[in-house]
Amino acid sequence: MAETSLPAVAFVIAYTASGADTNTAAIVAVGLALVLSLARIVKRESPMYAVSGLIGVGFAAFVATRSGRAEDFFLPGLLANAAYAAAFLISLAVRRPLVGIIVTKLDGEDDSWRRDPLRVRAFVRATWLWAGLFLVRLIVQLPLYLAGDVVALGVAKTAMALPLFGVGLWLTWLLVRRHRIPAPVQA
Length: 187
Prior knowledge:
The protein is mostly helical. The chain is built from 8 helices and no strands. It folds into 2 domains: about 1-70; about 70-180, no CATH class. It has helices at about 1-15, 20-40, 50-65, 75-95, 100-105, 115-145, 150-160, 160-175.
């Protein structure tokens, strides 16, 4: 999350400080993403998140510099939020709540949870929560994007990134924890 949130903040700061120069802001954002990636590698941490963050920031910077519109730096994130919201909503429409699939795969469970109405209901509620989270991001950020308000868009993206994601994880845990199947006792 830091690898995508901090470069967005740097983009907005550089954009404002440079007198609305999209190219300078893009260079600063990509530079920071590169530094964060290298820091993970030096600390011998998994580079997966850093590299994916670097790719995402690089793509956002590419889009913004090619279009010449600073707000386009945030377009890939808006499209990702739309895609995530759609995935969660489609999973509900086909009666396969995405949170249930993710949680049970992470726990190493099979598909037997689908026969437990309480667990299914908990996973449906949690899936609605995540669909709502991504839709709220779109509802708030899309008008700012369309208005070309780069600073407000950067603030909204930052405020709705890690804090909202953390709340979503916590609420998901509250919804599904009561319905977990206890791990088998090993002798």
